[in-house]
Design brief:
With about 450 residues, this protein is an all-alpha fold. The chain has a single domain, classed as Amino acid/polyamine transporter I (Up-down Bundle), CATH 1.20.1740. It is built from 17 helices and 2 strands. A hairpin with a 2-residue loop joins strand 1 and strand 2. It is found in: Membrane. It is a multi-pass membrane protein. One of its GO terms (molecular function) is L-amino acid transmembrane transporter activity.
Length: about 450
């Protein structure tokens, strides 16, 4: 769709094997969410049993998404993921709108937010990073911003050097983070310092919730869980660089999300073994507090270090996959053509990586070292993100009708019901987002619509 036409021109290399692909999926899904989200879910549903139900439903819904993306990724293993799927199924404008949202808000904003979160976790070991280093008028440059920009620059350079190097770094960091989480969870559960009676805690006394109130809180808890599971779609963005993609993509997507779900359940088991429901609800960093209570100060420090490594791995993976959207769109002429140029010897989308890093760093400078500012900005993209998830899974049905002869090494389990159910849930989620955050939804849709004039301009130049 956007490969070089000259046989002498560099092309993307299929340098990511099953291990690197697994590390990419696992490493971009497991970020900061599992360290922060358990307390949010516990506050919303007020029951240990319902907490585990929320995590289970989040896993089931994410699995439904991966089952569908597995067919799309195996049939169209190209750079760009959803951009390619939507363009082939519905036409180029739909692929452009997805890519525009990712370029303007989604991926660049996410990279900035993850980098700030990394700096915040580093602040546990280096106090004072939130102090201003430079000041001019109302603008401040804090240590958090400097660390965030430095991390973006470092990992952009790593992925500039080669996808094999980026994949190797991702594999190493993911092994560290998964190993640390497993070891600490096992240590907490085997310590004998917790209490299994914590799992029998009844909801707090008080007036019974109405059905509507319960559903609203349950929906908010589901939103938090789905945020922790988000990122399972990232693997398809590097479809052109995965070896044996027809087998690797489906296997890694499905087994990867199941592995993440198991790790999340184990972590929650350790948290509630160590802490009662009320303590989980009140803790801003529940995993660290659980480890500290059971294992002492070193346990909290070790968990904070695991969170730091986890966030670093997520940042590396996000930088690696995000640039492929720039590259794919530019290859089709929908972004500036130089962004589709590959490094002549390293075979990486070098200019796309640099521009992505500049945009993400610019957002760090603009929004400051306040992660809440990034979260507000990413709220603008939330409606569109889930809207595109729903539209993309339906692309499986559209492509089977429009392109029946397209090779499909993997067929979606439960077709067409799995895609239809996922799309229905995505629609309900979008409605919930619009009702709960009407201003953010409106701004996000306006930013999306603002891309249409640019699309019309670029189409005329193709």
């Amino acid at each position: 769709m956007h490969e070089p036409t000259s046989s002498k021109a560099p092309s993307l290399r299929r340098a990511l094997g099953p291990f690197a692909a697994s590390a990419l999926l696992t490493g971009t899904v497991i970020g900061t969410g599992i360290f922060l989200v358990p307390s949010t879910i516990a506050r919303e549903v007020d029951s240990v049993g319902l907490v585990f139900l929320v995590w289970t439903l989040g896993a089931v819904l994410s699995l439904a998404g991966t089952l569908t993306y597995a067919e799309l990724g195996a049939a169209l293993p190209e750079a760009g993921g959803e951009y390619v799927f939507l363009s082939r199924a519905y036409g180029p404008v739909w692929g452009f709108l997805f890519g525009w949202q990712q370029v303007v808000i989604g991926k660049t904003g996410s990279i900035g937010a993850i980098a700030i979160a990394l700096a915040i976790f580093l602040g546990y070991f280096l106090p004072g990073l939130d102090r201003p280093w430079l000041a001019w008028e109302a603008w401040r440059l804090t240590g958090l911003q400097a660390v965030a920009i430095g991390a973006i620059a470092l990992l952009t350079a790593v992925n500039y050097a080669g996808v094999a190097l980026g994949g190797a770094v991702q594999g190493f960091l993911t092994l560290l983070k998964v190993g640390a989480i497993l070891a600490l969870a096992a240590w907490v559960l085997g310590s004998g310092q917790g209490d299994w009676n914590h799992f029998q805690t009844a909801p707090a006394a008080g007036p019974a919730r109405s059905v509507g109130d319960f559903l609203a809180h349950f929906g908010a808890a589901m939103a938090a869980a789905l945020w922790a599971y988000d990122g399972w779609n990232n693997l398809t963005l590097v479809g052109a660089e995965i070896r044996d993609p027809h087998r690797t993509i489906p296997r890694v997507l499905i087994l990867g999300i199941l592995g993440v779900a198991g790790l999340y359940m184990l972590t929650n088991l350790a948290c509630f073994y160590a802490l009662p429901l009320a303590a989980v609800q009140q803790s801003p960093r529940v995993a660290q507090d659980a480890a500290r209570l059971v294992l002492g100060d070193w346990g909290g420090t070790a968990l904070s270090l695991a969170a730091l490594v986890s966030t670093f791995a997520t940042l590396n993976g996000s930088i690696l996959v995000g640039a492929r959207i720039f590259y794919a769109m530019a290859g089709d002429g929908l972004l500036f053509r130089p962004l589709a140029e590959l490094h002549p010897t390293r075979h990486t989308p070098a200019k796309a990586l640099i521009v992505q890093g500049i945009l993400a760093s610019g957002l760090v400078l603009l929004l400051g070292g306040d992660n809440a500012a990034f979260e507000r900005m990413l709220d603008y993209a939330l409606f569109g993100t889930w809207g595109f998830y729903g539209i993309t899974v339906l692309a499986v049905i559209a492509l089977r009708h429009r392109h029946p002869d397209l090779p499909r090494p993997y067929l979606t389990l439960g077709y067409p019901w799995i895609p239809l159910v996922f799309a229905g849930v995505a629609l309900l989620f979008c409605i919930s987002i619009a009702l709960r955050r009407p201003v953010e939804t409106g701004i996000g849709l306006a930013l999306l619509a603002a891309g249409l004039p640019f699309y019309a301009y670029r189409r005329k130049r193709i």
